[in-house]
Amino acid sequence: MLRFILKRILMLIPVLLGVSLIVFMLMQLAPGDPAQIILGPQASPEDIANMREVMGLNRPLYIQFLSFLKGLLSLDFGVSLKDQQPVLNRLMAALPYTAQLALAAIVVALLIGIPVGIIAATKQYSIFDRISTVLALIGFSTPNFWLSIMLILVFAVNLRWLPVSGAKNLSYLILPAIALGTQSAAIITRMTRSSMLEVLSQDYISTAKAKGLPPRVIILKHALKNALIPIITVAGLQMGLMLGGAILTETVFAWPGIGRLMIDSIRAKDTPVVQGGVIITASLFVFVNLIVDILYAYVDPRVKEHYKK
User: Fold this and answer.
1) What is the pLDDT of residues 122-145, one digit of tens each?
2) 3-state class of 1 per DSSP?
3) 131-153 as b/e, with b when 16 or more CB fall inside 10 Å?
4) d(CA 151, CA 166)
5) pTM score, whole prediction
6) Which of 31, 119, 171, 252 is deepest in the core (most CB within 10 A)?
7) Is the pLDDT of residue 153 over 80?
8) Whole-angstrom Cα distance, residue 92 to residue 70?
9) Lowest-pLDDT range, 39-48, 99-108, 163-172?
């Protein structure tokens, strides 16, 4: 297992290197001159040229990229063009809020998706199954920003049960978590249903029924455990997507996470913050996938034996 983890960690290096290259080139193609952004619109061409020299923007692109990679190895993302603060400090201040929102959203998705999927599988073609299928389709198709606005209108503006924006306490987390977790709940519901139906058709389930085991034991102890692999896969991918794709949710609810920070930085053409945010988000996504792979070994003994080889 340790050897497998080390191999996966080593595999992260080319992935992050490729992400770093793509982010660096995209920001080079983005309009705007960082030197002029720092000095302001009234700066003279001589001052801008001097600032570009100080920032190393006159050097060849490959030299700039190597310097960028050197900074990444030491966790030095540079300084923000907007307020001259270290980029890492700004990202670390926003990261806990994004992690908190993603964790709350995946909990919402799992609490809805797994029970509904199990019931839909055990009551295949029933009214509950058909209604859950329609609701899952609606949940998957509903745009995140539209759902966020509707939740604000209903629960914050009309009913005044929950706050609209900010992150002062846990009550501010409820609406963003529901908005971000709804689509994932729909996906997990469908995956749980499909996986459970496949497992419930196996011979060992028929044997367990013939032995007179209670339905609850058959479903939770035998069927669900063997159906968890695809569910874990989907949940892990959704968690990674939430960490990197919460931009719209954080913007609508003014949630002070990395997504909102990146939107503000893109508007301000704050290149170092955008680059650092993308690198941090990509690293988190890859890390979540590593955790999912490790969980496989504890859910499926066959995977554990494969790791030992």
Assistant:
1) 999 999 999 999 999 999 898 888
2) coil
3) ebeeebeebeeeebeebbeebbe
4) 15
5) 0.84
6) 252
7) yes
8) 20
9) 39-48
Q: CA-based diameter of the chain, in Å?
A: 87
Length of the chain: 309
Of 199, 197, 229, 205, whose CA–CA distance to 306 is shortest?
229
Angle at 153 between CA 148 and CA 154, to 5 degrees: 100
103 Cβ partners below 8 Å, 6+ apart? Answer: none
DSSP string, 254-269: T--SHHHHHHHHHHTT
Q: Residue 279 is encoded by which pair of tokens?
A: 């690198």
- Residues 275, 90: Cα–Cα separation, whole Å: 13
pLDDT score of 1 = 65
Q: Letter for the amino acid at 165?
A: S
Is residue 85 within 8 A of residue 252, CB to CB? The reply is no
